Amino acid sequence: AAPPQNAQRAVGFKITALTCCFLGTCALTILKGGGHFRSPVGFECGSNGFWMLYFGSLPWVAAFAFYFRSLLVSEFEQKVRKGHVFAAGEVQWDSRNTLRYPAICAISGLLAGLFGVGGGIVKGPLMLEMGIMPAVASASAAAMILFTSAAASISYIVFGLLHPVYGALFFLLGVACTALGQYSVGQWVKRHERQSPIVLSIGLVILLSSVLVGVDTVAEAIGPRAGELMRVHGVCTAEA
C-alpha cells in the first residue's frame, strides 16, 4: 500500500485536476455568451467562434477523461505488480472497466439531461451494483452532482434562463436538506452500524424522481401548453 502522505497527495492532485476541468468548462460557457449575455470576446451567438467555443467543451472534457483513465490504469497495474489484495467494494480499474463504466455514465448523463433529472439517479445505483460501499457511492454521486449542477447553472445564467430568486431559494433549500439528511442518516448509521438507510434513501429518491417526471410529462402533454412541446426555438433565444 502507498504511504498515507503519498495517497493524500494523489487524491489532492486528482481533485485539483477535476476542478481545473470544471473551471475550463465554465470559462468556455462564459466566453461563448448567448441569450441575454454578450460574449466577452465579442463572438455573436451563432457565429463560427460561438460554435467553436460551444463544442470546445467536448475535447476539453475528453482530454481530462483520457488522462484520468491512464492514471487509474497505471495505478491498477502498479497494485497488481505489488501483489495488492483488493478489498470488498474496491473497484479494479483495469483497461476494460475504465472504458465500460465511463461510457455508461456518459449515456446516463445524456439521458438524465434530456429527462431533466440528476445524473446521480443513475450513478448511485451503478456504483452500488459495482459493489462499492453505500456511503462511498452516495458521497461520489453527490460530488459529481456538485460539479455538473454548477456547470449547468452557469450555462442557464448565461442564457438568462435562471431566475435569481428561484436559484437562491433552491440553493439554500438544497444546503439545508443536505445538512439535515447527512446528520440524521449519519447518526443512524453510527448507532445501528448498518448501511441500509443510505441504500433506501437512494432508492427513494429514484422512485420519487421517476414518478414526478412522469407526472410532469403527462401534465405538460395534456395541459394548455401542449402545443409548445414540439415547437422549435432558436439557439440564440432565451425562450424557455
From TrEMBL:
Keywords: Membrane, Transmembrane, Transmembrane helix. It comes from the Eukaryota. It is found in: Membrane. Signal peptide: none annotated. The chain crosses the membrane at residues 12-31, 51-68, 101-122, 134-159, 165-185, 197-215. It is a multi-pass membrane protein. This is Uncharacterized protein. GO terms for cellular component: Cul4A-RING E3 ubiquitin ligase complex; membrane. It holds the Pfam family TauE. One of its GO terms (biological process) is protein ubiquitination.
